[in-house]
Each structure stands twice: as structure tokens, then as C-alpha cells.
Amino acid sequence: MFARLQIHFAVLVSVGVSLAADEKKEPAERGGTVVGVITAKGENFLEVKADGEEKGRRYVPEWVGGAPAQGGGPNKEMVKIIKDLQVGSRVKLEWKFEERARVIKVEVLQKPEAKGDEKRQEDRKEEKKGTAVGTLTAKGDNWVELKADGEEKARRYVLHFGGTKELLAAIRDTPVNSRVRVDWIHVERLRVLKMEVVKQP
User: Fold this and answer.
1) Residue 61: which of 95, 103, 14 has the closest Cα?
2) Strand ranges in the chain using DSSP code E only, listed in sequence order
3) Does residue 139 share a domain with residue 105?
């Protein structure tokens, strides 16, 4: 009986030691790669909302160099990279878990569009060119008004970058009610590039 108790006790002790050893083991390193949008950032962190996730996750640089007293701190190269990143950028981020999620590498896939860039894109969309033939209904020093064939009312065309000498001369010498051909471009508004008389009144 005593021998059996000794065996059971030895087994329990062995199990206890094994569990204690497991608890002391470092947790398995976790990590991965995410693709998403930078939603926020600070001096020592980056927040990325990965595709399919409801909210952003915070990533910090790796800690290098030991304790702070020994000169340790966040990876300086990654701190600089984070500083140069823009909120709204689409990125591919590699990370690993050491006490918290730590960013290893960041690749910018697409930069955010600035307001100025958006405006320039809109302007480029509106940069259309064409030719209109119709009647010159009115004119001024830096504009002409043309009722093109098939249109219900006349449209005003302003000079493009002040106009060329030939264009200024054509506007000056062409009588109102002449039939004209106008080459135009649309940059924020209709602008006349060239005008020639088809038939005078």
C-alpha cells in the first residue's frame, strides 16, 4: 500500500514539474503579413486596418539593444520609416509578436491622393478638345461667343493663356454674325485655341 502511494506521489510530482517547465517556456513566436490602410500613426507606432477587419491594429517597432539603461529602444530605422509614411496609404506590412505586435517591414502599395492631386485629376478629366462650327454672335477682348450648329444657344469661349497673335487678330478682324470654325479645349471652362472664318455675313 505504501509502495503504491509512493508511485502515485512520484507521478504527481513529475506532472507538476513538467507543467511548471511548460509555463516557463517562451510562447511560440507568431507573426504574418497584412495588407490594408494606415488609419493612424505616432512617433513609435503604426495603426493599420487590414482588409476584412472592422478596426485597425497597432504595430510598434522592434525593441533593440537591451534595457533602456543600456541604450535599448525602438528600432531607429523603423521609427524613421513610420515617420515618413502617410495616413491613408495602402501598405503591405510584415509583423511578429513579441509581447505585442511589432512591425518588421512596410511596403507602400499606394499613396493617399492629396486634395491637389484630386483636383488635378478632375481637371485632366475635363481637358477635352474639339472643333465647333457656327455663327459668331458676340466677341470681346479676351472672349468670343459662338452659336454652334445644332445648339440652342451660344456659348462663350475665353482665350487660352491669353491667346496667340493669330487668334487675337482673327477675333479683331472677324465681324459678328460671321460663320466661323473654332478649335477649343475645356480646362475648367471652354477656351478658344484657334478661330477661322468660313463665311462672312
Assistant:
1) 103
2) 30-42, 45-50, 57-61, 63-64, 73-74, 90-98, 100-110, 128-139, 143-148, 155-159, 179-187, 189-199
3) no
Count the residues in the chain.
201
> Confidence class of residue 1 from pLDDT cuts 50, 70 and 90?
low
For residue 172, what are the domain limits? Answer: 127-199
CATH number at residue 172: 2.40.50.140
Closest Cα to residue 128, out of 167, 180, 181, 184? 184
* Residue 45: inside a domain: yes
What is the mean pLDDT of the segment spanning 169-197? 93
Over residues 35-55, the mean pLDDT reads: 91
Number of domains forming the structure of the chain: 2
Query: What's the pTM value of the predicted model, to 2 decimals?
Result: 0.44
On whether residue 119 sits in a domain, the answer given is no
